[in-house]
Amino acid sequence: MSGTLRLGCIPTIAPFLLSDLVTQSSLQFPELQLLLREDTSANLLLQLEAGELDLLVLALPYELRGLHSRSVGHDPFKLVLHRSLAAQLENSADYRLLPDQSIYLLEQEHCLTGHALAACHMADRSKINPFAATSLYTLIQMVSARVGATFLPQMAIHSGVLQRTELVALSPSVQLASREIGLVWRPSSTRVETFYTFGNLVADCLAACCR
């Protein structure tokens, strides 16, 4: 647990996990230097394959093209909407009760959209608004305007993104609606032991921010 570890992370995880991860890593592994990069899953995988990164934190499943991976935990999804809209639904978390085109999601470059749709078993695509946001914070602004609802990961909610808003987070009616969080590395890497030890730390930090 020494030297440099070039770590890539996607935008729907990085703002909510990396601060605690870096702090705990410096305490537990003071000789390990983390170099961080935030990007989409597709771009990070290209950088990993090119040898520009050593390890990735991604949301799974994702096409890994023969790369090795290890699961470190799950991040539950919540249905987030304005409290006035939640009252109309009588606090039900069944998205099927919402009007057509009332669910806002991220643009397709972010794998969170696909994972949310799959985890929440959203077969009725007529509920999805054609507007695609570029960030979770844009989604929050749209939902705060009482125009609809969205799905947010628990780690984002735990970080306080809904504070000072009129939004509420409900557990979807589908059991185990969550995304899997995993580490990804090249099969040719000689640092697998380091990755597994570091993965235990990621799992601990993930568990803390997904309560």
Helix- and strand-based class? alpha/beta
Oligomeric organization of the protein chains: single chain
CATH architecture of the largest domain: 3-Layer(aba) Sandwich
Helix count, per DSSP?
A: 7
Number of strands: 9
What global shape is seen? elongated
Q: Please name the CATH topology of the largest domain.
A: D-Maltodextrin-Binding Protein, domain 2
Portion in beta strands: 25-35%
Explain what this protein looks like in three dimensions.
The protein has two domains: 3-73 and 179-209, D-Maltodextrin-Binding Protein, domain 2 (3-Layer(aba) Sandwich), CATH 3.40.190; 74-170, D-Maltodextrin-Binding Protein, domain 2, CATH 3.40.190. Helices cover 33% and strands 29% of the residues. The chain contains seven helices and nine strands; from the N terminus they run βαβαββαβαβαβαββα. The strands form two sheets. Strands 1, 2, 3, 4, 7, 8 and 9 form a seven-stranded mixed beta sheet that branches. Strands 5-6 form a two-stranded parallel sheet. The radius of gyration is 18 Å and the shape is elongated.
